[in-house]
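To the wet lab folks,

You asked to see what we're planning to order before we commit. Fair enough. Below is the target structure as tokens, and below that is the sequence we designed to fit it. If anything looks off to you, flag it before the synthesis order goes out.
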């Protein structure tokens, strides 16, 4: 599935209706570059910490650590597009948040 912002494209492989309180991976194409990212909710992080507490991972669920991530209030096309639109406003911010995975030819 593709979502379109004003000057960028988001590719996702999840059903957003099933992931409102979960997490999704995405590719963001902007300015001739493609980036990898993950969007997650606080509820999903809480579930992960609870699971890690039971499994012993992450010092028994004491912490959550990951790269390439933004935390959203809920996972919807609107919140993802709005958040990425805001992030893109600040020059160079994408490289500090997400991993650049490809250069896209015009």
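Sequence we intend to order:
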């Amino acid at each position: 599935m593709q979502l379109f912002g004003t000057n960028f494209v988001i590719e996702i492989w999840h059903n957003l209706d099933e992931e409102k309180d979960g997490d999704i991976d995405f590719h963001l194409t902007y300015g001739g570059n493609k980036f990898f990212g993950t969007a997650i909710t606080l509820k999903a992080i809480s579930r992960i910490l609870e699971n890690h507490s039971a499994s012993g991972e992450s010092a028994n669920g004491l912490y959550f650590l990951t790269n390439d991530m933004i935390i959203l209030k809920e996972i919807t096309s609107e919140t993802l597009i709005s958040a990425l639109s805001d992030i893109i406003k600040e020059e160079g911010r994408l490289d500090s948040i997400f991993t650049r995975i490809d250069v896209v030819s015009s």
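Structural context that might help your review: The longest helix spans residues 42-55. Residues 2-103 form one domain.

Thanks,
Computational group
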